[in-house]
Design goal:
The chain has 513 residues and is of the alpha/beta class. It has two domains: 232 residues, YjeF N-terminal domain (Rossmann fold), CATH 3.40.50; 268 residues, 3-Layer(aba) Sandwich (UDP-N-acetylmuramoyl-L-alanine:D-glutamate ligase), CATH 3.40.1190. 42% of the residues lie in helices and 15% in strands. It has a nine-stranded mixed β-sheet, sandwiched between helices. A seven-stranded parallel β-sheet has the order 4-3-2-5-6-7-8, sandwiched between helices. The chain is elongated, with a radius of gyration of 26 Å.
Length: 513
Amino acid sequence: MIRAYEAETVRAAEAPLLASTATDELMKQAAFAVATEVLRELRRLEARRSGSTVLLLVGGGNNGGDALYAGGYLARRGLQVVAALCTDRPHERGLTAARSAGVRVRPLLDEDGRPRGEELAVLADRAGVWVDGLTGTGGRGGLREPLAGIVTALEDRRSLMPDEPTVVAVDVPSGIGVDDGTVPGPVLRADVTVTMGAAKPGLLLRPAEALAGRVVVVDLGLAPHLGEPALRRLTPADVADLLPAPVATDHKYTRGVLGLVAGSTTYPGAAVLAAAGALRTGLGMVRYLGPDAVARVIHGRFPEVVVGGGRVQAWALGSGIDPDDDARADDVRDTLRRALADGVPAVLDAGALTLAPDRLTPTTVLTPHAGELARLLTARGEGTDRADVEAAPLELARRAAALTGAVVLLKGPTTVVAAPGGAALSQSDGTPWLATAGTGDVLAGVLGALLAVRGEDLTDGQDPDGTLTAELAAAAALVHGRAGTRASAGGPVTALQVADAVPGVVAALLADR
C-alpha cells in the first residue's frame, strides 16, 4: 500500500531523525537517490555519462540543497553539471560540496532579483536532464516571482525543443499543491519525482498527479513517526487480500448475492453492462428487478441472472435509470429505503444519485463523475461546478462524504474515494480509453459484487466509519482500471470488453497472492 502524508506530518517525523544524525546526513541520502534516478534516466535515454549535461535548478531551502548535493555525486561520476542558482540564498554547505566536486555554478538572478532570461535559455538548451530543486513541500499558494517567471520560461522553452529534456523533481514538482494536488499556478512538469520520506498527497491526486511523472519514494526511516496517512493507494497485493477466493464448501449464497435495479426501456444496455461487471467479478448470484423487456435483454446475454426479489447481500442501483422516469425512480427509492432499513450495503450510480435521501449510511457508495458530484453538492447548498471538482477532487469528495454520510467514489482519470469517517484513497490504474459509454455501469457492477461478497463484514454496523467500504470501492476501481487496460491493449475498447477482461484481472490478483 502506498501511504501519503501531508507536508507538516513529514516535517514533524523528520525532526527526531535530524536531531540524532550528522549534519545534512538525511539530505545526502535524499541527494544520492536523486542522482541515482538521473543516472537511470540517462541510461534509459542511452546517453553517455561523460559529456552528458545536467542542469540543476536550485532554489532556497532544503530542496535546493538536495539538488546541489546530487549534482556533486553526478559530477564525480563524470557528468557535466551546471547549477543555476535561482535564489540569492542557496544552501551553503550543499553549494560548497557541489563546487568542490566540479559543478559549475551560474547565478541566474541579476542585482535586482530578476532572472537572466537569455542565460537561462542557453543553459536549458544544453542540458539533457533538468533537476528541479526550486521549491519543496513548504510552498503554499503557487509559485511567486521570480520562480513563477522562471518556471513559465522553462515550460515555454521545452515546448519548442525538438528533444525535450527529462525533468527529475526533488520531492515534488515545483508549483503543485503538495497536500491537495491542486495546481494554483505554473508548474515545472516532471518525468520523475523523487519524494523524500513518504509520498505526498499531491503526487496521488489530479491535477497535480499528471505533472509528477513516475514517483519514487525514498525511505528515510520515518514510518514509526508518521501515524495515519492522509491518503492511501491500494496495490494489487492489497486488493488480493480484500478478495476472498472461493473454497470447497462455498455455494452461491455464501459467495454473495447482488440485487440489481438498473436499466430501463430507454437504456436497457446499462443493466446488461452492470450485470456483466458483477458476474465477471466472481459473486454467487445476481438478482434483477426491473421491466420485463429489460429482463429479456439481460437473459439473452446472461441466462444465469435471476429475475425477481429475494435475499441479497448488497444492491447496485441507478445505472441507466432516468430520475424523470417515475416508475423506475420509484423502484430505486423503494429498494434503497429497504436497503437502508436493513443495513444492506448499496452502490448508487447515475440516476440513483439524485434520488437518494439527504443522509445515507457509511456502507452506501455514491459513484459520481465530476459533473454529478458538482450537482450533488449544489443540491445540498454547496454551490459547485465541474471545474471546481476537477481542480480539488479530494476536498470536494470529502465534503460530499461528510454531507451525505456515505462513501463517495469520484470517477475520473484518477479515482478518489472518501469515507465519512475520514479515510481517503486514490487509484490510477486505468487507461484514457476507458472514457467511453457504459464503462461506469461496469464499474457499478464490479463494486456491487465486491460489496456483496464482503456483505457479512458490512452489515449490522460493522463498518461504522466506512473505511472497509471505501477500501472495497478503491479495490473495484483498481480491478476496473486494470480490466480496461488489459482489454484495450493500447487501443479503443468497449464497455463489454472491459467486463469480459475482469475475470483475468481477478485471477491474476489471486494468483499473485
